[in-house]
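Protocol step 4 of 6: structure prediction from sequence.
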Amino acid sequence: MSETVVLHIIDRKGEKHTINADVGKTLKDVIVREIPMDHFGDCGGCCACATCHLYIESSMSWALNGHEKLSEDESDMLEMSEGVTSESRLGCQIEVNPQMDGMTITVAQDL
């Protein structure tokens, strides 16, 4: 049985969902599995579309467990998005880890 953590996801409509997320899966994968949304993770998780644009609270960035910095590919994809902030990340690039338990993550409005 795999380890899970609880995440609070605020979707594009502003609705809050509490989900169980498998440690080791990407944020994109756990959100797609639990919350139906059009055009989320369209590229399948290969960092090629930015439809899994999320906001991770900067006060919780320590919990990204080694994924605090943007890769060049992730940065390039985010440059094409609307509403990018210092808290912007792509869900396909962040693996769920135990330190994220209880974290609130907001799905960006842009498509």
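Step 5 (inspection) to follow. Helices lie at 27-34, 72-79.
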